[in-house]
Structure formats: structure tokens, C-alpha cells
Amino acid sequence: MSGGSGGGSSAPGRFADYFVICGLDTETGLEPDELSALCQYIQASKTRDGASRFISSATEGENFEQTPLRRTFKSKVLARYPENVEWNPFDQDAVGMLCMPKGLAFKTQADSREPQFHSFIITREDGSRTFGFSLTFFEEVTSKQICSAMQTLYHMHNAEYDILHTPPTNDKDSCSSTGDCNGTSVSKLQRFNSYDISRDTLYVSKCICLITPMSFMKACKKVLEQLHQAVTSPQPPPLPLESYIYNILYEVPLPPAGRSLKFSGVYGPIICQRPSTSELPLFDFPVKEVFELLGVENVVQLFTCALLEFQILLYSQHYQRLMTVAETITALMFPFQWQHVYVPILPASLLHFLDAPVPYLMGLHSNGLDDRSKLELPQEANLCFVDVDNHFIELPEDLPQFPNKLEFVQEISEILMAFGIPPEGNLHCSESASKMKSLRACDLVSDKRNGNISGSPLNSYELLKENETIARLQALVKRTGVSLEKLEVREETSSKKDLKIQCDEEEFKIYQLNIQIREVFANRFTQMFADYEVFVIQPSQDKESWFTNREQMQNFDKASFLSDQPEPYLPFLSRFLETQMFASFIDNKIMCHDEDDKDPVLRVFDSRVDKIRLLNVRTPTLRTSMYQKCTTIDEAEKSIELRLAKIDHTAVHPHLLDMKIGQGKYELGFFPKLQSDVLSTGPVSNKWTKRNAPAQWRRKDRQKQHTEHLRLDNDQREKYIQEARNLGSTIRQPKLSNLSPSVIAQTNWKFVEGLLKECRNKTKRMLVEKMGREAVELGHGEVNITGVEENTLIASLCDLLERIWSHGLQVKQDRSCTAFVLEDRASVYSASTQIWAFQTTRRPTLHKGKSALWSHLLHYLENRQRKTTSGSFSTSGILLDSERRKSDTSPVMSPLRISLIQDMRHIQNISEIKTDVGKARAWVRLSMEKKLLSRHLKQLLSDHELTKKLYKRYAFLRCDDEKEQFLYHLLSFNAVDYFCFTNVFTTILIPYHILIVPSKKLGGSMFTANPWICISGELGETGVLQIPRNILEMTFECQNLGKLTTVQIGHDNSGLYAKWLVEYVMVRNEITGHTYKFPCGRWLGKGMDDGSLERILVGELLTSHTEVDERQCRTPPLQQSPSMIRRFVTISPNNKPKLNTGQIQEAIGEAVNGIVKHFHKPEKERGSLTLLLCGESGLVSALEQVFQHGFKSPRLFKNVFIWDFLEKAQTYYETLEQNEMVPEENWQTRARNFCRFITAINNTPRNIGKDGKFQMLVCLGARDHLLHHWIALLADCPITAQMYEDIALIKDHTLVNSLIRVLQTLQEFNITLEASLVKGIDI
Fold first, then answer.
1. Do the beta carbons of residue 800 and residue 381 sit within 8 Å?
2. CA-to-CA distance for 538 and 590, rounded, in angstroms?
3. What value does the mean pLDDT of the chain take?
């Protein structure tokens, strides 16, 4: 979080800690800034590819090699006052680098020299922050040596330029001499005459800076501007500058929380105010500017990226814009805090940090010449790129929508409109507006990734735009850029006339807009997480042991929380709950039990949540997706208004100091050399504080109050929370000092270690969650993961792989011939800074599409194809499926060829996947489903030559030990079954291979009928497929069926020998390799078995175990009741083993139990209900055993089926009804229903046989909750007495009653049958 946070161990309440002056050290002279120069050198060489011919010569000249005036020279900290303060040690490297991020700048009188203000943050490695505010202006160079050095550099530069650009002797020479070749000679003239010591005045940049513990940006800007005004105005200031600087350093206090303060600048009063501990933390940057630059839509998209911890790169010509956008986005996150690398202004010498494989929020300064296409970044798949000046945002793949985004955008838009700011942003505030106008409209429309400018109008604003007046005002603003503030609602302004605000109206409006927008954003989280406390899992052990086992602990019940959320929120929330910022927020909550001990941000948030609860008076679990607008704006505005109307404290006025005579000289246009003796130490005792401080300041707990707002309470707690934050990211912040090659190498080593640790944690988390779910299916524990969350975990694994493949990637470096002239210079840089390892050889480039992993795969594919054509290709990369899955797959089915390249080709053939990032993710999902991810990646990385070409030597993929451990962690995924490819790509076409295995005993070759087959899965069915006669193996293509459940197989009974004994059918998904076996073992033919011409077969996924009988070990595709003992029997009715009544009751109980468990799972996790009904240990099989028990033995050569018994019972009841001998009405209704179902099944056009009809009856009875009625009916039927022996279960009233009670438990469930089970029945 920005704003309120600061650093220090025991900081007194001073407004500013240091006053710093940076600039040119005339004693050391001009020192080139090597790292910055190197970055510029690379930048320059990047433009010299094919695209450079479209750039004018002048621009090319600028980009080719910098003129001395444009080169970077080292700036130095010339002075700082005081020398050091114990609570905030001075970091000279960081301050020097951030005050002047690009080093010294030189200009002549011909250039614009407006002073530029920017702020910056120094984040220490422990996460604490110090704020800097810097004003850069230009002073005339008075040193003759510096001017001479600049002149010499120009002579050298012009000579070198002349050599490199000597034109070839051809007809073009004449063109050049006439000065008519795109201005080449003009450009040359300008270059040769850029600086002439006899004619030009040389200016150099200088910077004055305040370092403060808290971010009072507006006040610091006024202080610095007034100091600069004092040295540039014709009249000297009223007092020496030392008096004002001494005053701000030692005599102006920090305003206490909830108070306002007035102090004196050089020319006028300066006011600042600080929120109380019950308000949103301090934030002093203008939100208005961010919305004007980007527009609401883009801001919300950027905000979403930040919340989900994507890498974010801001790009602008203005340092202050970078800072404003970064600070605004992090401030709007309240109550969450950005936990990763945070460098809003990235100095040129730290550009290698863009290579960091961790989430970051960084700001990159643009020179205004290069556009986005020229900016080569190491990784772009997970990057959110924001071109601040050009109103443009490029989003990462798969960005979920922020909950209630449409209403949220509208609420923000209404506030902006009230302040006269167009919601789509105001391009006129940007200096690049003219550039935008020159862009063709069709280019903008075709750019789908631009968050704001698209083909369709912004529907977010439709409601606002219906108001004609507002629409006209908006059009006016767009045309003229005129502010609409004067046109605000009159009632509001008139009601505030009684309060006289001390600051000017413009500043007050900024305060108002800031707080209104921030309250709206904070309200979103208060609404979304109103009940979060209910789901926090408090540790049972003490804090020390909790912290020791922190990585293994779950601190938030994510599954329960998500199950309470509205469906549209889930894509965003399921990913947000996995972020480091959310984990830290919950850690913070767990660490702070007492109200006094609570982090101030958490205290503010919790108090708001409590208010919402009281307001809504609802139960904690009741959630609604209804949008609730912010209601706290007026109260928050009132607090600020009161502070600004009545100033609480006025600081001591600046006064004359005890300076020696002659000190404090004033020289127009030059910032004076200040007297260090008077500024190095403050007053011994601050009389003003003692005399004038209010009672509140004199309390003993003043120190506590200050540190509390800075979040520095209890040291031990801070240590815990800090360590908890660091769990997710080994490196939190780049260190700005000591940029030696060894330090840079060490930093990269930290990245490698961090990636490995993250991989270990992620694989472990995914396995625990997956095994947790399987444990449930095996009857252990409770479910704690949802389908949404599993998908989220796999997506985050894809992100991690993308970051690993992006670390140390060779960024595109195609060199033109001129680049080789500078080969020696490049090698010097390479030697001095190992991290860059630049070479002049041509590198393989990152394929367009921005996925480092897919790019690597494509390079691998090219290499293999090259080797294949040259004949050196080995087949070691290809294996047969039978080698991998040692299963009971029949040798008749041709083995599936599996290889890394084959899987790539499968992905390339999927037309639905358009981007390389999407292809990489699909490939990872497919490899995980096939349990080949680790093997494939090992094969990919076995091409060491390619890896060396693609990656720098410090890259993760070139650290052998870490790479081995990484692959070992991924290997653990083979322990569980994922269907992450099948379940996600539901609309793609998949080839399926079918094998029908007839009985070997009875010659299938004599079979004369025409067979057909229909395959069903969880996502759909194929419809009837005709099988050519005598063909037992075929491949067909259809839309993804999901996990396969049933096969319907039959024939048309034609020909002389229309009898077919099918052992089993096998179906294989040719992309994922999943093979399903559908056992049959029955005849299909009239007069054979039960006379069936078609059968419904229920399938099972073949596992990688050899022992087929060990079904319980299988990871769950089957979804049967997990604790059930699977019994393998042939399905012919007379061969079934005779079970005793106890075993039959157990089978019924477990079959029903399986169905009950099925319905108690979250909907997205349920398996196939068909398997639970019709599988080998399903309900149909169990009821079959009930009716088989005690069935009287049939006569010789005649099979009697259960269906025969049921038909006789039907005849009996129909006869009863005709004779009107019905005992009671209830009984009559049951009998009628029973007869109706039997008749409907007998009348079906399908030839499903007697056992097939019994299966259909059981399924329909379960669906309509009639089974228990029918069992009672049949138990009392006289036909039962005729056809069953006395020992039969159906005749034992006690057992029948027990059976009825078990079946009644199915009444509460809504059973939906698969279409294949009830085809042809309309009942």
C-alpha cells in the first residue's frame, strides 16, 4: 500500500528527514553512466532491423548512437542535510539514482528547459518505504573544463559518425549533395553544429529533493517550487534559503493522525492534512490525472491485473505520471497491499529487472520516439503493458472480469462526470494527443486487446449518455478540453459556503475526487469480503509453532467461501484467493487478535465490515450479486472538509539563523551552495513543540500513535508478518545500491531459488488438493476443493511455467551490419557486466505470440525437422502407448504413438486456439492429462545446444541441479488423474478409435447382419454409427464427448447368421490416449440369450495398473461408491454366483450409498451417475441379485428371466383391476403405475432384450422415486409365491421392509438419466 506507510525504527514526528541536492560534480568531471549507456546501446541496436528503413534519417540518427548532448552522465549527490538520521539511514545510491533516473542531462539555449517535478519511493528489502520528492531544473554550466570536454566529445562523435555513414560511391551521392534525400544533409548539419563552445550556452540539470517519512506530495511539491522560484526571480527571497530549509527539516512537524497543519514556504503558506486512524490511509496523488490519461475501463482492467498479481509495466515520458499511476493503483487496493517488486520509476541501470520471473509493478521511462512495437520485453504472456501517454493498455491472456464490472464502471463514471471528467479519459490532457489523432481509426478498431478503444461502443456508459445535457457537455469537453468544474451542481456549492476552506478551490476538488473514488473502490471489497472473518481458520497452536509450519497450514477456508459466492464472481475470486496479497492479509488477521494489536489498515477495514453487517442485518452465509453502491462518501468528505476549514496546527515561521557574515549569498539563476554548519543539526530542544503542542502531542503514547499509522507496532508481530509475506517471493525488492556484476548475479540466483521454491509449493498444493478429493471418494475426510479452484490451480501452474521459460531468455537482438563495427565495445560491456553476456552472434528470437514456452517448443520442432531431413533423427523421442500404460489393453488394438512433437501437432490442429499463449497452456494441460508433462519437458530440455542458444547462462533452465529438481516435482503429478484438457476444450473435434472384440470360441466371421454403435460421454453422444460388415476396428472424428460413459451396440438382424457374441468394446481418445473398456459377454440375436438385438454397455477407464482386479487403487474416473468391493462376474444370468441375503443387503446399501454421495458433492465434481446405476456394482446389478435370490430353477433348456416374472405380475394386476377387486386406492395407484411402465417398455421400438428392459425399469423407477412402492407391491403379489422358493429374500417381510427403507433415501434426489438409457421411452 502506498500513502500511509513509511519507514523508521523510532522516527520523531518530523515532516522531512533530508534535503538533498544532486547534479554535476565539477571536480570529477563528465563520467559516463556505463549501465545506462549500455541499455541505450542495446536500445539503439534494436532499431537497426528491417523496420528502420521506414524511419526518417533524422530519427535514425538519434536512435543510432547518441550525440554527446543526449548521452547519459553520472549525477552525484552534491549535498544532503542533515548528514544522517538514525531512524532513516541515507541510501546515497538509491537517492542519486531516483532523483535523476537517467543521469545528468545537458541542453543548450535552443532547448526547452522547464523544471520537472517527480516523486519516487525507496522500498527497502524489508518492505518499509521512504518517499522522495524531486524538482529538476537547468543551470548554466560555468566550468570551462566541462564546456571544453563537451566540445571535444562532439568532435569525436562527428568524426565517428562520418566514418560509419560514408555513402557508397554511386548515383545517390549527387542526391546527397543537393540536400534532397529526406533531409539527410540537413540532419548532418544539425549533428555537426549541435554544440559550439563559442556560440552556444551549455546548461546542465540539477535537482533539489526532500526525503520524507510520509507521502505529502502536494505540500512537498509547493516547498520545492517555491525554493526554485526564489533562485530564479529577480528579487532575492525575504530570508536566506537556509532559513526555509532549516524550518522544513527541524521545525515543521508531521501532522498527527486526523489533524491538519499549516507551515510557511518561501512565498506563501502550505497546508497538509492527514487522515485519522479510522479513515482510509494517507494518499496525496491526483486520481483525476490517472482517469484522464487512461479512462475508467482501462483503469479497472489495470486494477484487476494488479489484484491478480500479474507483471505490470507502465510506460511514459513523464516520471511523475509513472509514479501517479502506480501509487493510485496500489492505493485503490485497500485493504490489500502489493507484496512484490515495486519500482514505479525503473532507473536505466536497472533494466535487467524486467527479466525478473516474479510479479512486479514497474515504471519504464520512454523517450517519446519508440513505440510499443520497438520495446522488446523478455516475457509478455503474463504482462500487463500500459502506455500511459497514449491511453493504451495491453492485457494478459485469460484475464477474468472484476465482479459487477459494468455497475462498478458506471458508479465511477457518474462521479467523474460530476467533476467534468469524461469517463473514457481526456486525451487532451496528454501531450501525445496529436499522435493519437494521426492513428487510423481502423487500426484502433482492429486492436482487440485495447481495453478502451474497440469496435463496439462502451456500453458501460449507455445509461449516462441517455442524458442529452451530459452528452452535449461531454462532446464539448472532448472538442475543447475545457474544464466543466464551474458547471457542477449548484446546491452542493451553496451548502458549503458556511465553511471557509483554507486551501484553494482546485486543490479542494482534488481532495474531494480522490476520496470519492477511493471510497467507491474500498466499498467493493467491503461488500465482497463482508463475511471473510467467518472463513479465517485460526491456528490451534501458539504463534511460534503456527509460523514454523506456516507453509503447510491452510489459513482460509477457500472452498466454503467460494461456494457462498455468486457464480459470476468465481473466475475472479478463485484466482484472487491464491494471491500473495490475500495470503498476507489473512496472515495479518490471524496475527492480530486484540483490537490494540491490530494493523491500522485491518482495523479500518474490519470496522467498515461491521457496519455493513449491521446495516444489512443478514446471516453471514447469505450472498447476493446485487450491486450495492457506496454510502460512505459524504462522511469521508466531511472529515477532510472540517480539517481544511479549521487548521489544527501552525508550525514555527522560518527565521534568521545564526549564520556568519557573507553567508547565504544570492545569485540569480543558480541554486546557492548552502551552509552545512547551520543545516547539519537541528535545535537542541524544540521550544515550539513544548510551548505550543496540544495535550494530545504531550501524551506518553505519542510515539505509539505515530508508529501505529506507519504500521510499525509490535516488533515481533512485524517480524512474523514480514516473514509471512516473504514466503511467496524470495526477492521482494531490487536493491538500488551496489550494482556490481556479483550483486546482479546474486539477485538472479535468488530468482532461480524462488522459482524452484514456488514450483515445489505449487505442486505440493495441487497434489494435496487432488488427493484430498480422492480421499473423500475413498471414504476419508471432507471435500475441500471445487472444480473452479482446480482449474485456477492449473492456470497458475501454466503461469509459473511461463515465468520459468521467460527467465534469462535472450531478447530479440537481430543486428544490422553497422552493429558489428561496435563489436569490440560490446565485448567490453560484456566483460564488465557478466549478467548481460552480449554476443554479436545472431540469436534465435522469441516467436511472435509472446509465449516463451511455446517459442521453445517451436524451436525444438524446427530442429527435429532439420535433423529428420538430414537423416540424423533418432526415434528415441517416440514411444508406444503400450510401453507407457501397461494395462489389459488387447494386443489387437494398434498401440498409440506418443511423442512431444505429436502432442504439439494435436494442439496446432485445434483451430479454436488462436494465440501462442493459449497453445502453450493447452499443451501443458494435455501433457498433464497424459501424465507426460515431466517427461516431455525433460525431452525438450535435453537439446542442450538449443537451450544455450535461447537462454543466457544465468537462466533457470541452465541451472542443472534446479532444473532436475523442478522436473522431479512435476513428475509427482503422475500420481493423480487430471482431466484438465478434456474438461476445458469441450468444443474441439477429437478422433476416437473403436475396437470390437467378438468371442473367439464362436466364429464371429460367420456373422451376416449389419452392426452399429453409439458412444455416449459426459458432454454428448455420437449418434448411431454404422459399422462396415466384418470390420472390427475403425476411427471416426466427432466433438469432444468428455469422459465416456456408455456404448450402445446392436445390429439389424439381417442375413442367415444374425447372431453375435461380443466379449467387449474398446474406445480410445486419440489425443489424450484415454482408453475405455465396455464389457459385454452377451449374445445379440433373436432366440439367443434374452433375445436382445442391442445392448447398453457401461464403460471404465483402463488404468496404468497391470492388476485389473485392484480397482480400489484407481484414481477416480469411475465415481462408484469408493469403499465398495468390486466383484467380477460374467454377466450371463444363470452363471451369477448365489449370494446370501446379507451380501445382497450389503450390495444394495453400497449401491444406494454411492448415489447419495454423488449428490452430496458439488455439481462440478460429480462423476457419471450411469455408472452408479448400471455399472457392475450399481443399483441395477444389486436389485437383480434381490430378484434372482430364491428364484425357482427353470425347466431344462429354458431360461426364465426376471422380466418374465414382472410381466406375469403385470398381467395379474391388470386382471384384478378389470374384475374390480382392488383392495385400496393407494395400492391401486401403485399397481397402475407399475403396469403402465411395463407396457411402455414392452412397446419400445428398441430390441433391448429382457435384461435390458429390467435395467430400463429400474432406472425409470429410480428417476420417478417409485422403486420402493414396486418392491412392496411385488412382495405381496401371489405370482411371487408361485415363482419363488420360501427362502427367497422377496418373501421375507423383515428384509423387504429394510430394502424399502434403503430405497426411500433416494427420494430427496433429482435423478436425471442419460439419454442412452431411456431412448425410445416417452413416459
1. no
2. 6
3. 74
Query: Is the distance from CB of 1290 to CB of 1296 less than 8 angstroms?
Result: yes
Q: What is the DSSP letter of 1133?
A: G
Check if the beta carbon of residue 376 is closer than 8 Å to that of residue 383.
no
Reported as a single tens digit per residue, the pLDDT across 529-539 is 888 887 888 77
Amino acid at 454: S
Q: What is the pTM of this model?
A: 0.70
DSSP string, 37-98: HHHHHHHHHHTSSGGGGGS-HHHHHHHHS--GGGS-B--EEEEEESS--TTS---HHHHHHH
Look at residue 1108 in the predicted model and tell me its pLDDT: 34
Q: Residue 1099: pLDDT band by 50, 70, 90 thresholds? A: confident
Q: d(Cα 954, Cα 228) in Å, to the nearest integer?
A: 46
Q: Which tens digits make up the pLDDT trace of 145-182? A: 888 888 888 888 887 777 766 655 444 444 444 444 44
What is the spatial distance between Cα 823 and Cα 477, in angstroms, rounded to a whole number? 53
- Cβ-proximal residues to 833 (8 Å cutoff; 6+ apart), any chain: 34, 35, 38, 741, 744
Instruction: Say if residues 386 and 296 touch (Cβ distance below 8 Å).
Output: no
Give the separation between CA 813 and CA 825, rounded to whole angstroms. Answer: 16
Question: CA 1204 → CA 577, 1187, 1211, 1247, distances in Å?
Answer: 59, 12, 11, 16
β-strand 360-365 against 341-343: which pairing, if any?
Answer: parallel
Model pLDDT, residue 522: 93
Angle between helices 933-941 and 916-929 (to 10 degrees): 120
The residue among 1050, 1067, 967, 1036 whose CA lies nearest residue 1007 is 1050
> What values do phi and psi take at 239, rounded to 5?
-125, 160
Contacting residues for 852 by C-beta, under 8 A, at least 6 apart: 378, 379, 381, 802, 805, 806, 809, 846
**Residue 463 C-alpha from the chain's centroid:** 31
Positive/negative CA dihedral, 409, 414, 419, 423: positive
- Grid cell at residue 140: 548554466
Are the beta carbons of 976 and 794 closer than 8 angstroms?
A: no
Per-position DSSP letters for 410-454, written without gaps between them: HHHHHHHHHTT--TT--GGGSTTHHHHHHS-HHHHHH-TTBSS--
Unique residue bearing C-alpha cell 430394502: 1299
Nearest in space to 600 (alpha carbons), one of 513, 725, 512, 717: 717
| Residues 944-981: tens digit of each pLDDT | 999 999 888 888 888 888 889 989 988 888 888 888 88
Q: Quote the DSSP letter at residue 1196.
A: T
pLDDT tens, position by position, 1176-1225:
888 888 888 888 888 876 654 556 788 888 888 888 888 877 766 656 66
CA-atom Rg of the chain in angstroms: 39
1147 neighbors 1125 (Cβ within 8 angstroms):
no
DSSP helix/strand/coil, 99: helix
Assigned C-alpha cell, 1086: 433373436
Element (H, E) at 387: strand 383-387
Spacing of C-alpha 305 from chain mean position: 7
DSSP SS3 for 209: strand
> Above 70 in pLDDT, residue 193?
no
Dihedral sign computed on CA atoms, order 1151, 1155, 1157, 1158: positive
Instruction: Please tell me the distance from the alpha carbon of residue 507 to that of residue 967, in angstroms, as a whole number.
Output: 57
- Which helix (H) or strand (E) element contains residue 773? helix 741-777
Instruction: Provide φ and ψ at 996, rounded to 5°.
Output: -105, 125
Burial class (CB in 10 A: 0-12, 13-18, 19+), 3: buried
3-class DSSP assignment, residue 165: coil
DSSP 531: T
Tens of pLDDT along 778-837? 443 444 444 456 777 888 888 888 888 888 888 643 333 323 322 333 333 333 333 333
Residue pair 1290/1137 in contact by the 8 Å Cβ criterion: no
